[in-house]
Structures are given as structure tokens and as C-alpha cells.
Design brief:
Blueprint lengths: L1 H12 L11 E7 L4 E5 L12 H11 L5 E8 L9 H10 L4 E6 L4 E5 H4 L17
Parallel strand pairs: 3-4
Antiparallel strand pairs: 1-2, 1-3, 4-5
Bound molecules: tetrahydrodeoxyuridine.
Length: 135
């Protein structure tokens, strides 16, 4: 099940735009209904406006009306499987606090994480003064 999603992430990686770092990342985000949204990192000359592959997936899924996520796969040509950056963890936590995350290198080394382990205390105290209900 995760293998199929990882294969999609490897394919998405080919669409990366990473002229500054040269580090191409692909990701594939699956909804609970089985739809998959792919993304790749999109860099910018400002560097700070760079979008990670993971957040590109989330934007694509939301724009298509999907918010209920089940699993995320990530692929990069690294020595060890990459983990989502802090910013992406927080964005993913907005919609899927316990998301399962699969990551692999191009040479086939795999790792599996839970977003709740990667980002504990995801929303503690934030905006509680305004009585905002977290999903
Ligand atoms: N990057 C991702 O797309 N996802 C990650 O999980 C880590 C980093 C991208 C951002 C930037 O384009 C390049 O990899 C180097 O940081």
C-alpha cells in the first residue's frame, strides 16, 4: 500500500523545480477515499518563497476539495530518507494530526513516521483565547 504511494512520489519528483539547491523532492498525499495528489518542490530565486513538495500536495488536494488525509509518501535522492521540515509538519497537522508518513531514497532505503511523533503539541494553546475549535 505504501509502496504504490512511494512510487507515485518518485514520479512526482521528476517535476521538481529546484535550480538553486539541485535537491529534487517528490511527494504523494492520499485521502481516505483513495484519491492521490502529487507534488514536487518549487524553488524561487528569493529562496524563502520555496515551497516544499509536501505543501504543494496539500495545496493541490485542498484546491480540489479534499481535506481528509490518510498517508503521505516522500521521495528524494538522499542517503537517508528525508522527513518533512517543521513548516510542512505544521501545515500537515492542520488537516491530519496523526498522518502516516512514508519516506524513501532513490536507492530504496525506507522509513516510516507518524506526524504526531514528528510534531507533538501541534496546536496546544493556539488561539484558545478566541475559543477556536480545532478539527
Ligand atoms: N524540501 C522538500 O521539498 N521537502 C522536504 O521535506 C525537505 C526539503 C525541498 C525544499 C528545497 O527546495 C530543497 O528541498 C532543499 O531544502
Amino acid at each position: 500500500m505504501s509502496n504504490e504511494l512511494l512510487t507515485m512520489a518518485i514520479g512526482a519528483r521528476l517535476r521538481s523545480y529546484a535550480p538553486y539547491s539541485g535537491f529534487a523532492v517528490g511527494a504523494a498525499l492520499r485521502t481516505r477515499t483513495g484519491a492521490v495528489f502529487c507534488g514536487a518542490n518549487i524553488e524561487n530565486i528569493s529562496l524563502g518563497l520555496t515551497m516544499c513538495a509536501e505543501r504543494v500536495c496539500v495545496g493541490s488536494a485542498l484546491a480540489d476539495g479534499h481535506r481528509d488525509f490518510d498517508a503521505l509518501a516522500i521521495a528524494a535522492d538522499s542517503r537517508t530518507p528525508i522527513v518533512p521540515c517543521g513548516a510542512c509538519r505544521q501545515v500537515l497537522a492542520e488537516f491530519a494530526p496523526g498522518l502516516r508518513i512514508f519516506s524513501r531514497t532513490l536507492s530504496g532505503t525506507k522509513a516510516e513516521f507518524s506526524l504526531s511523533d514528528l510534531l507533538p503539541h501541534q496546536k496546544d494553546g493556539i488561539l484558545e483565547k478566541f475559543h477556536v475549535e480545532h478539527a
